[in-house]
Predict the 3D structure of the following.
Amino acid sequence: MKECKELVKSNRRISIRQQCKLVSISRSNVYYKPVSELPENLSVMRLIDEHYLNYPTYGVLQMQDFLYTKKLKVNLPRS
């Protein structure tokens, strides 16, 4: 995929739409700019990972309870 995205250039005579069609990728792959994760999310994820290594049988609700004890208010999709 990465190699195909590198083939598509905006300064060529063929439009980006046609170039994408030739290399069989969608235009959204060409225009997408990755967004970095928020530092707050990274710290919560690190905490979850560390706790999971000690208690691998914890489920979502137990992990959510653990985060509540750390004064972190998270909802089910985030925990």
